[in-house]
Amino acid sequence: MKHFTFRRLFILGIIVAAIICLIPTFFNTWPHKKINLGLDLQGGMHLVLEVQNEKAVEAEIERTVHELKKELRTEGIKHLGISRQKDNTIEAKLQGEESKKGFEKIISEQFANLIIPSPKTVSDGFSFILSLPDEEKDRIKKMATEQALETIRNRIDEFGVSEPDIRMQGDNRILLQLPGITDPKRAKDLIGKTAQLTFQIVNDDADVANALKGNPPVGSEVLFQNKRDPSTGAVTKIPFLIKQQVLLDGSLLIDARIEFDQFQQPQIGIEFNRKGARIFDRITGENVQKRLAIVLDKTVYSAPVIQDRIAGGKARITGRFTTEEAKDLAIALRAGSLPAPVKIIEERTVGPTLGADSVRMGLLSMVAGGALIILFMMVYYKGAGLIADLALVVNIVLIGGGLAAFGATLTLPGIAGIILTIGMAVDANVIIYERIREELRSGKTALAAVHAGFERATLTILDANVTTLIAAIVLFQFGTGPIRGFALTLGFGIVASLFTALMLSKSIFDLLLRNKKTSTLSI
Predict the structure, then answer these.
(1) Which end of the chain is flanked by fewer CB atoms within 10 Å, N or C?
(2) How do residues 401-412 score in pLDDT, each as one tens digit?
(3) Pairwise CA distance, residues 362 & 329, whole Å
(4) Residue 222 forms beta bridges with which residues?
(5) How far apart are CA 263 and CA 261, in angstroms?
């Protein structure tokens, strides 16, 4: 039993875990996580979209102009013209001191978010130049990009692309990598579609189970809510019987944002425009104690019970949300329509044949490089070289297992990262073996020479690898696409190299030399 120390059992456990994680990549078995091939290895489509979020600011200004005119008309205040200027400010012209005072009162009460400098006196009255604060403009632009991102993500999920890569790039760009796409035109058309947000009443008077069998009541349909278990990540579909009549749609929703109640629990605050507020007031007044389903693209996001009439156009959606869930729901509620035009500024399509060629050439280069390194170590370091070669094979298995465990996507630069770490792993063994040779020449026994060689080389190896690991982390954090793929495999490779060189190799030497008292060693 002395051979099975805690250290050796730990090493064996790591290797077995890596093999188990790697198996699903080749066979469809538990734990069902595998290494996914990137766009350059299996073909697909690469798009960079630019959200013209300045248009969202223009739309907000236009909406404010429209609301301002309605308020002035309601209060009987005459004006000489209210219009949006090219620099996204609002110019309002009024005549007479009474109109000026009434205008200023409405602005202070109803449009407090506008910056209102002192009016200018013109020949026919007064001229106001109103504008949004810079922070508000930045918020609208950011919200527009987030809305576009969520809408596009919903479209791509509906399209059924496996392992899509969708992320923000800068302030107003969205990067999409869609592996395995065979119909690029259809994908682009789908991305351009607009999400549909509706508010509908839940039909609690009929049997959902019966409706699931294909017998829904006239005027109702079965829709599902996707509930994700935060601990396991499993998604459960909860059926709802929803009345098909759309009482209110997302075109009248002007804002949805995450808020916190008095117990610091996240909730979603929503706000409608004036028309939406009137409709929402009527809907809630007529359906007290009924459930109002918030439906986005035929998926139920929430179905709260209406406790009382809600006036003013503002409401809160409460539930057992995490902060992340509440944020996602707020974005989804705002994603009823694209708030700004989205323009494709970069497009690349990689054919599946080219992707297969990339896989073949990448694997061929990795096998050829590995074989040459294995041969060199066997010839130059003899028996010790075999231990290094075994550690090298285990190193590759650990990298593959790590990538599979995290469901990472392997790209062509990622293969380059693996090849680089193979060389770095051998470099660590070379440093250790040269130290061991020096200790043997000084007359130490084989076991003492091995221990001294590992001890003296460890700090040097750690310094070299940790600095490279820091560079890999920086590349992963701030890089995009292929750069992140390279950084990921490089990072996994460095950790695996340290493990195999400093723990596995030393453990094998200890096991072989424990009872050997001579100063000879095949190295």
Answers:
(1) N
(2) 988 888 777 877
(3) 42
(4) 241
(5) 5
